[in-house]
Amino acid sequence: MPERKPPAIDFAKVKSAATAALSEKGEIIYREEETFTDKYESDRLRTEIPGFDKILGGGIPRGATTLVAGGCGSGKSIFCLQTLYNGALKHDEPGAYISFEEPAESIRNTARKFGWDVDALEKKNVLKIMLKDPYEIKDFSKTLSGEMYYTFKDMGVKRIVIDSVTYLASTVGNNYEIRKTVATLARRLREIGASTFLVSEIPEGATGVGRYGMEEFVTDGVVKFHNIHLKENRQRAVEILKMRRTKHSILLHPFCINNKGITVFAEQPIFK
């Protein structure tokens, strides 16, 4: 019997498979077919936060559900509010901020401190800041109806913040139901054409990004804010842990909160 020759090697497939491996420096190599090129730029949601869109290759994929995680005072709520404000003001994209604990007027006062005229945008019906019972959100995600649904529909909402998914999850019985509730909510909001930001509260020093250990698995992206203790000082930093269909930075980037909001220093390393 003649000796059988081994099949020819398909180097294109080998290259594709190798993209899941680690580089010599231990950095993840992203698959080319999952990255955005120029023709997809219109599908990006731009936060217009100085420096932030740069570390995401232009912005967040439109329609994505993004987990915004961090400890107390890390800047996550300011980031979300600034993203909504910029969307309404600069891109004519209506936004809704839904809080389960902090009163709406308190959130407005935070915005005013940065010079953001949220009152004018609310009068134009391109921004809505609301204090809601989490059960209203759960009813909305189940039936796609109710007051919240018609509010979103009337506004033509494009950006939604849920603050916080941690509080929402605390009203659900077990981890299975939590995962189901968050996944269903994300799907419903995507169905109405919105990009969603879910605020996740985590204890200082925690290694995870969600209180219940599953939030990151049912979202498209994870942005984590840090307030790092460094000798006698603290340094603020942000990192992108995950963002589907995006070639993003995997570094920690320092940022500051000044009188205009958040500024990310995309080219500057931390601990300098």
Description:
30% of the residues lie in helices and 23% in strands. Helix 5 crosses helix 6 (146-155). It has helices spanning 11-18, 76-91, 104-113, 118-123, 134-143, 146-155, 165-169, 175-191; strands at residues 44-45, 60-61, 65-70, 95-99, 127-131, 159-163, 195-201, 221-230, 233-243, 253-258, 261-264. The strands form two sheets. Strands 5-4-6-7-3-8-9-10-11 form a nine-stranded mixed beta sheet, with helices on both faces. It is globular and about 50 Å long. The protein is an alpha/beta fold. The protein has a domain at 62-224: P-loop containing nucleotide triphosphate hydrolases (Rossmann fold), CATH 3.40.50.300. It is built from eight helices and eleven strands.
Task: Please give a quick description of this structure.
The chain has eight helices and eleven strands. With 272 residues, the chain is α/β, with parallel strands linked by helices. Strand 8 and strand 9 (233-243) form a beta hairpin.
CATH architecture of the domain at 62-224: 3-Layer(aba) Sandwich
Poorly predicted spans = 9-41
Work out the strand percent. 15-25%
CATH class category label of the domain at 62-224: Alpha Beta
**Beta-strand segment tally:** 11
Tally of alpha and pi helices: 8
Strand and helix order: HEEEHEHHEHHEHHEEEEE
Question: What is the CATH homology-level superfamily of the domain at 62-224?
Answer: P-loop containing nucleotide triphosphate hydrolases
Distance between the termini: 69 Å
Major sheet details: 9 strands, mixed
Average pLDDT over all residues? 82
